[in-house]
Description:
By secondary structure, the protein is an alpha/beta fold.
Amino acid sequence: xxxxxxxxxxxxxxxxxxxxxxxxxxxxxxxxxxxxxxxxxxxxxxxxxxxxxxxxxxxxxxxxxxxxxxxxxxxxxxxxxxxxxxxxxxxxxxxxxxxxxxxxxxxxxxxxxxxxxxxxxxxxxxxxxxxxxxxxxxxxxxxxxxxxxxxxxxxxxxxxxxxxxxxxxxxxxxxxxxxxxxxxxxxxxxxxxxxxxxxxxxxxxxxxx
Length: 209
């Protein structure tokens, strides 16, 4: 997998990360911005969580990043209000790119249209295989020979936006859901920051390994 290309400009792309859980992909993104040997072309200007107890919020605070909580439970049954609250935050942060990383909410067409071609997601499968949940379980059940991660643009259909990049790993006979999850997370942590960086550099990236 390629190393980052050196930014041609000191103006960094503004990234907002939407999370809901542990935040390991967020941590990989943060680490990329702190790597002085391979400077990133982007900066994280905010982290928004739909889960008030998400550990990713702690990761963001340790990195001294602005954090925002828009609790999905408080907006139960009011998706419009939930998304409006997030859009209000985004309006102040003015992101060049919005990165979904464990954000377990399906965005409405209206939300996506507010930021056309500016929202990406990382998904734990080789799309178009296995959109949605329980991807590792399906790989094991179907005895697939390979598995992986996909970064794609977000559109109005679940996990169906144009694919930007994928990374693959073989599935061994003794693999379990847990071992496969670990393998795929390792791929995600390398793939996602690279794709974000290439988008920030204006590179139309297709990464496969």
